[in-house]
Design brief:
CATH class: Mainly Alpha
Largest sheet: none
Strand content: under 5%
CATH superfamily: MFS general substrate transporter like domains
Helix content: over 70%
CATH architecture: Up-down Bundle
Distance between the termini: 67 Å
CATH topology: Growth Hormone, Chain: A
Shape: globular
Order of helices and strands: HHHHHHHHHHHHHHHHHHHHH
Length: about 450
């Protein structure tokens, strides 16, 4: 099979009419990748909801009458670690190998079978969660959390490059947002860990992690069966025509073909040189990475510390928070992401076809997250200063509704502006940027300990 030429950014951005009849591969591609995203987030976020640093738990020791009850419910009491240690565990422990592996994972997504990468990595983080449920010390959890971080680094680069290659360009924002909605669905399932891991249930924190791990293993098995085999996972054989339009039917034929031979890569190509090439693409790409870093700082801090904060602020509503928070994340987060992706597709299509627009396709997409970010600032202020639980949950819902529209458009712009042969590396850098944002929750943990002293 003759490799297609490298696609220029200008051609890749065209909404060519040739893709108007291409099928939207929801069941065969988008849905399996959504399951991967849900499993990923559920596994990595369950920890956030299985700790309690409220004043009533600070003086509990192994000799306290209520120790067994609280140790059954909360990991920090059972394994005896502080809020500062939790901040490290939830962020830096996960990020250490996650960050180191991100660029390499991106390059592997450009050069290796992406289905194998997804299935093997999802099995790894699921087994890590299952193993965490039988851990007996803080150091055990640190080790397993790091392994989980290593495995999770491979998910996004492989998934987003598959979406770019197999989904018609006019739907790529929606498809990316659908995959990104797995973050909110997985976070909703993790939020319910407050109930499944509560002191009054049989499962406890160990059972909650075991459930996440077992479901992840089942999910990985299902994805391995349903997701098409990736026989064109190298940068010289992307299945696009000369206009940058995905020919899905051709991709499926190539997927099932046994005669396809991968094109060899230059032995001198390295992850660092590819990363340099990505950053050299344009000023927009460089500023996009900077904006993504600050967005991850905010999002990760909220995600990691919201449960301890609301448990501390409204101690009588812990069970209600588990249910309401799960609904907010699952409904408002998913709705924001899906609507943001769909609107960005429409704006991009209109920008590409109009001669009167003041901006191009990618700028049209980025208007959505910019608008959402500015709206979220006063809404988050209202959330933090609400005097009632109901008021706090209302403003939290509004925050998710306006702020979570950014992910699909940002990824679509990145994959559109960067040459396709560097798509996996670009997504790995995107993931690495998120990993660097984990410094914010760690700092928050230190500040929390200072205020409690």
């Amino acid at each position: 099979i003759k490799a297609t030429p490298i696609i220029t950014t200008e051609k890749a951005n065209n909404f060519d009419s040739n893709d108007s009849n291409d099928p939207y591969p929801f069941l065969s591609v988008v849905l399996p990748l959504l399951f991967i995203s849900i499993s990923n987030q559920w596994s990595r976020s369950s920890l956030y909801y299985l700790v309690d640093f409220s004043p009533e738990t600070l003086d509990i020791t192994s000799s306290s009458p209520s120790f067994n009850q609280y140790a059954h419910a909360f990991m920090n009491i059972d394994l005896n670690f502080t809020a500062e240690q939790y901040g490290f565990l939830a962020s830096a422990a996960f990020t250490s190998l996650f960050a180191l592996a991100s660029l390499y994972a991106g390059k592997m997504a450009d050069t290796h079978d992406r289905r194998i990468l997804l299935v093997s990595s999802s099995l790894a983080w699921s087994i890590a969660a299952l193993s965490m449920s039988i851990s007996h010390s803080y150091n055990d959890v640190i080790f397993l959390r790091s392994i989980s971080g290593l495995a999770c680094a491979f998910a996004a680069p492989a998934s987003y490059t598959l979406l770019r290659d197999l989904v018609p360009r006019k739907h790529v924002g929606t498809a990316s947002a659908t995959y990104g909605s797995g973050v909110y669905l997985g976070e909703s399932l993790a939020s319910l860990s407050i109930l499944t891991g509560g002191a009054s249930t049989v499962l406890g924190w160990r059972g909650a992690l075991a459930v996440a791990g077992v479901c992840g293993i089942l999910c990985a098995t299902l994805v391995g069966i349903v997701l098409p085999e990736d026989k064109f996972g190298n940068r010289d054989s992307r299945n696009k025509d000369v206009n940058g339009v995905v020919d899905f039917s051709t991709a499926i034929k190539l997927t099932s073909s046994k005669s396809l031979e991968p094109t060899s890569l230059s032995s001198q190509s390295t992850a660092l040189s590819d990363a340099s090439a990505v950053l050299s693409t344009s000023n927009r790409v460089r500023f996009l990475f900077l904006a993504v870093f600050f967005r991850f700082c905010a999002g990760l801090t909220i995600g990691i510390w919201s449960a301890p904060f609301f448990r501390l602020a409204f101690p009588d509503d812990a069970s209600s928070y588990a249910i309401v928070n799960a609904m907010i994340i699952g409904v408002c987060g998913v709705a924001s992401g899906m609507i943001g992706g769909w609107v960005s597709d429409r704006l991009a299509e209109k920008s590409a076809s109009s001669t009167t627009m003041l901006w191009d396709e990618s700028t049209g997409r980025l208007l959505i997250p910019i608008f959402g970010a500015f709206l979220a600032i006063p809404i988050w202020h209202m959330t933090m200063n609400a005097t009632t639980f109901e008021g706090a949950m209302f403003w939290l819902a509004m925050k998710y509704l306006v702020a979570e529209c950014w992910f699909g458009p940002a990824v679509a712009v990145l994959q559109s502006d960067v040459p396709s042969k560097y798509g996996g590396t670009a997504q790995g850098m995107f993931t690495l940027t998120g990993a660097m944002g984990n410094i914010a929750p760690s700092v928050m943990g230190i500040l929390f300990c200072w205020t409690m002293d």
